Amino acid sequence: MISAENSWIVAWGEAFGLPEGVPHWIYSAAALIFIFCFVIVPCGGLMSYFERKLSADLQARVGPNRAGPAGILQPIADLLKLLQKEARSEWNWKESLWLSVHTMALFSTLAVLPLGSMALLVNTEMSVFLPFWSALVLALGTMLLGLSQNSVPGWFGGIRVAAQTLAGSFPALISLLCTGVRSGSFRWSALAESQGFSPWDWTVVANPFQLVAFCVFVVSGLVLLAIAPLDGGLSMSDIHGGVSSHLYGMRLSLFRFGRFYGFFFWSVITVVLFLGAWDLPSQLVIPLRMGGAGRLLAFIELAWLLIKTFALMLLIIWIAKVNSRSRVDQITDFAWKVLSPFSLAALVGASLCAGWRAF
User: Fold this and answer.
1) Total number of domains in the chain
2) Residue 2 covered by a domain
3) What is the pTM of this model?
4) 77: buried, middle or exposed (CB in 10 Å: 19+, 13-18, 0-12)?
């Protein structure tokens, strides 16, 4: 018997023509390496480029235009510049330890990241909650990274990150439950199948309560992961960089890429939960499935998912660029006093709508 989890690995292996009889853990490891090298890393470079171009347009500047055609190679140039930084003479083993924990907690979500109907390596009733708990571990690692630096900016930065995490986790979890109420399951496949290609079939427009849950979920994610403009725990001038104040070179590159990935995977989850996931028109999906074009279908689903993810990320970045950053106390008050009541009201309303529809 093939378990529910392994069935997705087998389907993925058959679609890409991998030999039979290979242990499933090899399929899983190959999938994770492929996703990281050919999806996450290129997306990080592209989003860095788009963000700098958007910032330049808003400020009437030219933006990156020298590294490669139209400055497209600027992220690579920035990475090479950081890697050339000289190492400090002192070495803090605590900082290295918690930076490693921070990185492992971050990229452990690759295994449960939904990137298409044929890229679901873990598809269980706990699938939706695993990235959420990984985000909490990520915040814990960030806090301990700051506390391990033996400096005032790092210590206060870590404490502020912890405060934001506690404030943002509750409304985010309640909003997440609203989508499961509508779909009747927390499997990635069920959440995608409960929606459709048309925007009118997306969860966000199913009823007004789901729209409220969508808004709360997005903003709570910004609070939980300390993403601009709600990144007061990392960007306030009084702590001079906070957690990242003592990072340099490769460590700073790793930390910054981790910041991007946290933003990226939360945006992917938002798209899957509320914005139609990877759903394509049935007139396109059925011929591809019947014709055995599994690879092409997987690529189109991934491309459509990433287009919506990038659109959401650029919208948030645009809002962050035209609004000032808030203090940590303002962010936590907003999360507890505004986001939490709205999330509870959305859950009650979504439950009533689901009950009425079933009745």
Assistant:
1) 1
2) no
3) 0.87
4) middle
